[in-house]
Specification:
Number of helices: 7
Largest sheet: 5 strands, antiparallel
Distance between the termini: 36 Å
Number of domains: 1
Radius of gyration: 15 Å
Structural class: alpha+beta
Strand content: 15-25%
CATH class: Alpha Beta
Strand order of the largest sheet: 6-5-4-3-7
CATH architecture: Roll
CATH topology: C8orf32 fold
Length: 179
């Protein structure tokens, strides 16, 4: 269904969600996702493409519990899995390797189930959490970060091993600390 589909269980789940929808609804979602992917594809560098996708989805979606990918594109509302699935679909359509990562997140007060993404630039993988960047007032704090940077509040709980994000993206345009 989606080009460049990675062989991770979460991508199969996204594809199954799309194929189980009515063709009309699926086409609306893919049209909205493709519009963002096309905007990102105007750029040559993978970094710029990922940033456009991140920022477009961050601006489009507002956090709401129990809203998934479908609601992200059709209503502009999603929970963390909706953000992560939407980001993955758009990245895949733009030809960017991306997976959804499942685990837990700790916000200082509580720990809960959470989903975020990993993207590949050249030979390296990086963590991206559009949801946490959105609910933290439009930041890039969780954009192209290493596993070490994420480990203070994100814990992977995948049934298979994830790629390792061993470094932060070398260009720090957002004031992120080195990690």
């Amino acid at each position: 269904m989606i080009p460049h589909l990675q062989l991770y269980p979460t991508q199969y789940q996204i594809d199954n969600k799309l194929t189980s929808m009515t063709p009309k609804k699926r086409n609306k979602i893919l049209k909205a996702a493709k519009a963002i992917a096309d905007k990102a594809s105007e750029y040559d560098q993978t970094f710029d493409k990922i940033k456009v996708i991140h920022d477009e989805l961050r601006d489009l979606i507002k956090y709401e519990s129990y809203k998934e990918m479908e609601s992200a594109f059709l209503e502009g509302k999603a929970d963390c899995s909706g953000y992560a699935d939407a980001f993955c679909v758009v990245c895949q359509l733009a030809g960017i390797d991306c997976i959804v990562v499942w685990g837990t997140a700790h916000n200082g007060a509580m720990t809960s189930d959470h989903a975020w993404n990993m993207v590949k630039i050249a030979d390296d993988w990086y963590n991206v959490d559009v949801c946490w960047d959105d609910v933290r007032l439009f930041t890039h704090t969780y954009f192209l970060r290493s596993d070490k940077a994420f480990s203070s509040n994100h814990t992977v709980k995948m049934p298979i091993s994830c790629p390792k994000a061993t470094k932060r993206y070398p260009v720090d345009k957002y004031g992120n600390e080195a990690a």
